[in-house]
Amino acid sequence: MLARVPIPSIFVTGTDTGVGKTVIAGAIADWFRRRGSRVAVLKPAATGCVHRREGLVSEDAEFLAACADARFPLDLICPQRYEEPLAPAVAAERAKQPLDWDAIDRSIRLMSRESDVMIVEGVGGVMVPMDAKHTVLDMAVWLGAPAVIVARPHLGTINHTLLTAEALRSRSVKIAGVVINQYRTDGASVAEETNGRAIEKWGKLSILATVPAGRASAGDLSPDIVAAVEPVDWEALARNRAS
Ligand SMILES: Nc1ncnc2c1ncn2[C@@H]1O[C@H](COP(=O)(O)OP(=O)(O)OP(=O)(O)O)[C@@H](O)[C@H]1O
Ligand SMILES: C[C@H](N)[C@H](N)CCCCCC(=O)O
Ligand SMILES: [Mg+2]
After folding, report:
1. 3 domain-assigned
2. Helix or strand (DSSP H, E) at 14
3. Which of 4, 166, 177, 215 has the largest count of CB atoms under 10 Å?
């Protein structure tokens, strides 16, 4: 189990792996950084990590650290790292290296002390197993941070987004809203044009931002991605935590 994040925070989850959680979490971190906040970023566990001279590195953590201009080392930002690109519970079992919740807790404690806000990126979607007994959803409950759901723009996303919202609500995780990512501004299909409204209506969710496909390499977010998240009051959302 983890202690609650003791500072304003946002939990960035998604409808699936590869939907753009890292890019959107990075854009949110960048939003706070540009306003002078001391931003902590956390990827509690990462799989598919790469071998470097300094050891196993999470590329998600590197991206987030660059966007936040983070003052903490990568092994605090991502304390649990696995090589195989699998659900953490499966990667941990195969590596014979059980997930260490205490290490994650320590990261939260140390980074919170010297930060104004913490942006946490989940792993895959909410039902992904973290260890033999717990899922990403359990972790979201423990962290107590409002969730941002990153969703794809195209056909199928209504179902994925509403299922994700249902799971979060079943455990009383506050939902800040949905970010539709990689929206095609030219040549969007009818489904893509109408999905946002449908998600708002049937999911009783707000679409916080619709983010176009742009350039997104570590610390270098294209101006159109930055502009898409700019109008959102992330500060108010980060403060609006579960009681
Ligand atoms: N708005 C965007 N514009 C351009 N490329 C994007 C955008 N959003 C995401 N991508 C690209 O799509 C891929 C998947 O995005 P990302 O890594 O953020 O997904 P994720 O949900 O964090 O995945 P994971 O489950 O592995 O953590 C990456 O190559 C990323 O650069
Ligand atoms: C390796 C990858 N990029 C993710 N971080 C892990 C995603 C696990 C998804 C598991 C699943 O839902 O089937
Ligand atoms: Mg990611």
Report:
1. no
2. strand 9-14
3. 177
